[in-house]
Records
---
Amino acid sequence: MITIGKQKIGPGQKVFIVAEVSGNHNQNLRRAKAIIDAAADAKVDAVKLQTYTPDTITIDSDRPEFIVRTGNSWKGKTLYQLYKEAHTPWAWQKELFAYAKARGLMCFSSPFDVSAVEFLETLGNPIYKVASFEVVDIPLLEAIGKTKKPVIMSRGLASVEEIALAIKTLRKFGTRDIVLLQCVSSYPADPADMHLATIPDIQKRFRVQAGLSDHSLSRDVPVAAVALGATVIEKHLTLKRADGGPDAAFSLEPHEFASLVQSVRLVEKALGKPSYTPEKNEKDMVQFRKSLYVVEDIKRGERFSHNNVRSIRPGHGLSPKEYRFILGKRAKRDLKRATPLSHKDITK
């Protein structure tokens, strides 16, 4: 169980749903706040920022390896150009943390270098997110671990060995609580590539909580993840995909996100816990179970037989499993047709 203030994350708790703001603010502070408003209206638990600058995450170079080759809105830009467009100005972040808190949401961030961790500590960042591509950045993980705060980490391209080293590093330097998110690093992701069966394997293999960071446009994928044991769901939120922006193509709009939250809350209630006891709403259904009833008038002392006792609906009499036991026994009193049989009606 992970406890952050009043928030608890873990099995038996509400799924921790995170709306990722990312670069969907399009360099407009008012729009960033509007995304937080949409997240609050959708009833998520937290919003997440990203803390980097173009200079802390890459360098300004147009060498071929610095040109984005993926086939979405990023294609053809240099990494520096992409992160200049997508980064959240550090000067906004204190204000955004406070704004989210005022809307009843936890706010936290993904740092992308050690200086970002140092900066986020000044803001009281309550939990750290390790982005999927940063799983291999051991110096960054050491700095995060030293804060001793909980960590949510996306798997992405990381191998089993890389994940194991990342977890070992975080724990060595002080992190106790870790949630590892199944994540496919394609934007948008194809649901067919999600391999949600990895979620229970994460729990067993790494002995940590598991969740999902979902870059697909599906609302079914996160719901299925919850059914498989995910305790955290993270998904990108934008005001309108048509407005564009670096992450808009794989982000949900407010009404879609609200629908997702409602579905997750319904499924987590439906999952419940192992139970073989009838629910309150089932108790009237006993009418449709079978039990042993008198189907012909029986006099006191008369024997019970196939002719005067049957297993029929409703279920207010003795269980049908006692049918063979009562055959041949004598009635202790007169019994009218349609009387449910009970032990007190049988002469011992």
Note: The chain is about 30% helix and 15% strand.
---
Amino acid sequence: MAYDEDLADRIRRALGARGGLTEKKMFGGLAFLHDGKMFCGIIGEDLMVRVGPEAHARALARAHVRPMDFTGRPMRGYVYVGPEATTTVAAVRRWADEALGFVATLAKAEPRRARTRRTPGG
């Protein structure tokens, strides 16, 4: 699945030169991480935002927002924001700032260890 390159550009402009940011292709889209913690991304034309469980209902009450149901089950704490609500850098910045504020409350992400494969007889 391709993702909206124009939205990716708006996200990059909204984030500016903040430290600790990385991008990673995930879920068939693009994810943005801060210190290893995903805070937003793009799935198709939608902005995916990690708002956290406490702000989930409040986020869903906003226009053009729906539950993130990537797996077929809604994920509490994550929402999709439709393209109608992400047409400007300022609009994207508000969502990104909210998501960054949430992930700042989380424990530091531990680096993932590479999986090792066991060989038969070994």
Note: The first helix runs from residue 5 to 15.
